[in-house]
Specification:
alpha+beta; 8-stranded mixed sheet; 18 helices; globular
């Protein structure tokens, strides 16, 4: 995540600071979910803005995205792509507000709120010097998501005055550039107090020691009241990734939702679910819903609406019975179980249907993969669609399954009925491990002990993150089975990036690990094409996959950091890995759905001394 957005092929972000919408800049739709979503700061030329909540967006022309399974789990009626109105006629769309409010002039060094510079309309310029202004480099935020300008006046006066601005002086900001340290950034006041550098402002207790408390501000939400907050604020760089961590959820479109009458009805379901059959049939005729789908009738539409109604009722009753599971965020299990069943079942291509999910077994037998590598099934996913939605975001600390409700920064002032999302299309290969061989391996005491070491560290971290929450601490997924599937996915992604010509960042993993699941999907998907024209699917052909696995396992058997890497008792952030480092298993963050944690290369190939057996060494 960079502080400066791309300057080509971008979509408009009008501002609400002026009476009529002002076009600030342009970014891609997908970036409003992944990089510059609600609550994130975006640099436009020499100004800085904060993306406002979705309740202020104009979604009249925003395309609807259907993914019923994900919508049901997230408690919304559906999804919409961020609006992208025509640039020539656009007066609205995605809104932004100026933040931070403090700016400085590089010539006269004045440091004050932007409005006091009396800048010309539509320009960030000092009215005295005609120099371009510079937005404040520093902001403060707390782990509950509140965000404010850095309190420069309190910092420079260090308790010499009771109230902010009480001295009546003019603040100055100087960075002499002699060093890159905070010691070279000086804040002064014309009242005569001694100059103070920014050194020490990033200490965890620096602001609390000065009596600076969190003001509970949420400037990205229009007219949002301040909240009472006891969390200590932290100083952050405006462009730091710690200012905004997106909380995204995704789901694959699987049958029956991805094709046929279900796909036709999906965009209109919200308006039809409360109607009687006669009204539904009338709507079908008026809207000519089936004009290009002669194989279906209005009775099929009525049946589909009724089927979805029943599914929603059943899901609601199930949620009441599993309230505890939902409280700990176990939505992924329900989504992944459906995907696992679909990936394990052939769904051949139908020339008469516009399908979003095509999954077939290889034409060649996979006997060599069964005998040599313990794979019981290989499926070539020739077409897939994934919907990725932004639910909320975090600040200061990255998201955790144990986060309390207070850490979930809202993207709307009221509970939203929809969420911003985008869809990607692509292809992949699904591998399923032989259950008998897997059960024998995962019960070996040596492997159980290694997994237990990671699980204890992970549960200790989850417990610390849940200290201010009243919900149960979610269990760690760090089982021998999970470590094996995760390491296998990373090893294959690294191998295919070398052998198939794909950048590792363009390949993604999806792990299916539970008592009844033992599979991994490796796929590529993009928002502006229909996949990669078979390049990933070709890697799943038995002969080629056998060669890839042999090469990948050979590469995994030795790391350039060995023996330190393999013999490490714990590695990685918060000691959540065992034998895993940047030279062997770690991937770009876009590829791993678990932030490069819960990895152990020994699960694949065992330890050199043979005491811990690897799954592929049995």
């Amino acid at each position: 995540m960079g502080p400066v957005p791309p300057r080509t092929r971008r979509r408009g972000l009008p501002s609400t600071t002026a009476r009529s919408a002002r076009k600030l800049g342009e970014i891609r739709r997908a970036q409003l979910i992944t990089t510059y979503g609600v609550g994130a700061m975006i640099a436009v030329e020499n100004e800085s803005f904060l993306i406002r909540g979705i309740d202020s967006w104009d979604i009249s022309e925003a395309p609807f995205i259907s993914e019923p399974r994900l919508a049901r789990q997230l408690g919304v009626s559906g999804f919409r792509m961020p609006p992208a109105p025509d640039a020539d006629s656009a007066r609205d769309g995605v809104r932004a507000v100026r933040f931070p409010e403090m700016y400085s002039c590089p010539h006269c060094h004045q440091l004050q709120p932007f409005r006091k510079f009396n800048a010309p309309a539509g320009r960030a310029e000092c009215s005295t010097c005609q120099e371009s202004l510079v937005p404040s480099r520093f902001v403060i935020a707390c782990t509950h998501g509140h965000l404010e300008d850095f309190p420069y006046w309190k910092w420079v006066h260090r308790g010499n005055r009771a109230g902010s601005g009480g001295c009546g002086g003019q603040l100055s900001f100087q960075a002499d550039g002699s060093t890159a340290s905070l010691r070279a950034v000086l804040i002064s006041c014309s009242c005569g107090v001694e100059k103070v550098s920014m050194e020490g402002s990033f200490r965890r207790q620096a602001l609390r020691d000065l009596g600076i408390r969190c003001g509970g501000r949420r400037p990205w939400l229009k007219d949002a009241p301040t909240e009472s907050c006891q969390e200590p604020p932290r100083t952050l760089q405006r462009g730091s990734s710690s200012v905004w961590f997106p909380v995204m959820h995704s789901a694959l479109s699987i049958p029956p939702y991805s094709q046929g009458i279900a796909k036709i009805v999906a965009p209109f379901y919200d308006g039809l679910k409360d109607e009687d059959p006669a009204s539904i049939k009338s709507f079908v005729r008026v809207m000519k819903l089936l004009l290009h789908h002669p194989k279906y009738t209005d009775d099929d539409v009525v049946a589909e609406v009724e089927r979805r109604r029943t599914a929603e009722i059943d899901a609601g009753e199930q949620d009441d019975d599993t309230e505890a599971a939902n409280r700990v965020g176990d939505y992924r299990r329900k989504l992944y179980e459906g995907e696992y069943r679909s990936l394990s079942t052939p769904h051949p291509e139908d020339a008469e249907e516009k399908q979003e999910f095509v999954c077939e077994a290889p034409t060649a037998p996979i006997d060599i993969l069964r005998s040599s590598h313990g794979l019981t099934q290989v499926m070539l996913v020739k077409r897939l669609r994934e919907v990725r939605a932004l639910q909320s975001f975090r600040r200061v600390e990255e998201p955790s399954p144990a986060d309390s409700q207070l850490r979930q920064s809202a993207i709307s002032l009221t509970k939203p009925s929809w969420l911003p999302a985008f869809e990607v299309s692509g292809e992949g290969v699904f591998l399923r491990l032989a259950p008998e061989r897997l059960r024998i391996w995962e019960e070996r005491p040596e492997q159980v002990a290694r997994a237990a070491r990671i699980r204890e560290n992970h549960e200790r971290l989850l417990s610390a993150r849940a200290s201010d929450s009243d919900k149960p601490i979610p269990p760690s997924p760090a089982t021998p089975r999970f470590l094996l599937l995760h390491a296998l996915a990373h090893t294959l992604i690294n191998e295919w990036s070398l052998d198939g010509g794909y950048p590792a960042a363009s390949l993604r993993e999806r792990l299916y690990s539970d008592e009844d699941m033992a599979g991994v999907l490796i796929y590529t998907a993009t928002s502006d094409s229909a996949g990669s024209l078979g390049g990933v699917v070709a890697q799943g052909e038995p002969d080629r996959l056998d060669a890839s696995l042999r090469a990948a396992l050979h590469r995994a058997s030795w790391c350039s950091n060995d023996p330190l890497c393999m013999e490490a008792e714990a590695s990685g952030a918060d000691s959540l890995n065992m034998a895993a480092c940047h030279a062997c298993l770690l991937l770009p963050e876009t590829s791993c759905e678990n932030n490069n944690i819960l990895l152990d290369r020994a699960a694949l190939v065992g330890t050199p001394d043979g005491r811990v057996p690897g799954f592929f060494n049995l």
